[in-house]
Description:
It is built from 14 helices and 13 strands. By secondary structure, the chain is an alpha/beta fold.
Amino acid sequence: MYKLLARPLLFRLTSDYAHEIAIRTAKSFSNSPWILNTIGTLYSYSDPSLKQKIWGLEFKNPIGLAAGFDKNASITPIMEKVGFGFIEIGSVTALPSTGNPKPRSFRLPKDQSLVNRMGLNNDGAQTISRRTRKLTPGVPLGINIAKTHNPGILGDDAILDYKTSFDLVKDFADYITINISCPNTSEGKTFEDPEILNKLLETLEVNKDSSLPPVLVKLSVDLDDQQLEELLAVSESHNVSGYVATNTSSRRENLTTPQRKLDAIGRGGLSGKAIAKKSTGIIEKISELTKREKTIIGVGGISSAQDAIDKIRAGADLLQIYTALVYEGPGVVKRINRELTEYMKLKGLSHVYQIRSTMSQS
Ligand SMILES: Cc1cc2nc3c(=O)[nH]c(=O)nc-3n(C[C@H](O)[C@H](O)[C@H](O)COP(=O)(O)O)c2cc1C
C-alpha cells in the first residue's frame, strides 16, 4: 500500500518536504484516538517469542525507532501504534536549534540509502522533557542527547551542555543514549576523543549515581579498530549499560549512485543499506570486546528479517530502524517481526535471543 500509493507521491517531493509532510500528518494522527486505534489494529503484531526483558523493562518486540525520526517527541503515540517495541526520541540538545539550512536530506534510491545533514534540529531539552513527561507510552522510551549545534559551545561548556539535557531527562527516561557520533557537527565529533568522553561520563556520574536509568553510548560506523577499542575502554571504565551501534557514515562507500550525484549532494551522514555491513561489523567487535556482557542496540541498514538476523548474530539484543521507514513505509516493522517469528518457527527456536546461536546454520 505504502509502496504503491504513498511512496510514489512522497518521492516526487524533495526529501526534506516529504519528511515534513510525514511528520505533520503523523502529528495530526497522534491527536485522534480513533485513528490511533485503527493504525494499532492494522500494524500491531505480537508473538511471545519476540518478547524480552532487558534492564527490567519489557520489550514486546526487538524493533525500535531510531533517533532522529521523532526528534521532538511529537509523534510518539503514533510510532507506538505502528508496532515499534521501543522508541528513542531526540537527539535532544540543551538549547533549541533549527539545524542546518535546507536542503539537508537526500535520497539515494538505487542504494536504498539516505544522506542527511539535519544538524540536530530540535525544540531543546526543556520543551521536549516537558512534552515527554506527559506521555504514557506502552513501550520503553529512550532519550538520545547530544551537544547543542553551536561551534561556540566548547570545552567545559560543551560538557555542561550535555549535562543540562541529561539532568532534565534522567528522572523519566527508560534509558539515555549519549550521542557522541553526530557526523553533521564537527564539534560534536570531538566527544569521540577518549579523554573528552572520559570527562563527559565522569561529569554525568554514570558510574556513581545508582538512581540513573541505563546509559548507552552511540558510536559512529566509521571508527577503526583502535578508536573503537579506546572508546569502549573508557565507556566500560564508567560501567555504561550498553551501546547503540551505529550512527551514520561520513564516507561514501558501497554505493552505486553516480559520483556526480554524490558530489552535488555534498557532506552529510549516510544511512540505510550502504552502511548495513559496516555497522554489523562494529556490533560484532563491541560484542567481542565486552565479552557479550553489555546490551547492544544494533542499527544501520535494517529493512528485512535477514538484516535483523545478521545483527542479532553479530551480538545485538535490540534493533532500530530509520531509513527503511522511508523506503518501505511503516508496515516494515510488522513485516520484520512476522518474518522473524516465521524464521524462529522454521529453526525450532522459541525465543529471539536464541537466534544468536544459529551462527553456522544460516
Ligand atoms: C534524517 C536522519 C536524521 C537522524 N538524526 C539523528 C539524531 O538526531 N540523533 C542520532 O543519534 N541519530 C540520528 N540519525 C541516525 C539514525 O538514528 C541511525 O543511527 C542511522 O540512520 C542508521 O540507521 P538506518 O540505516 O536504519 O537509518 C538520523 C538519521 C537520519 C536518516
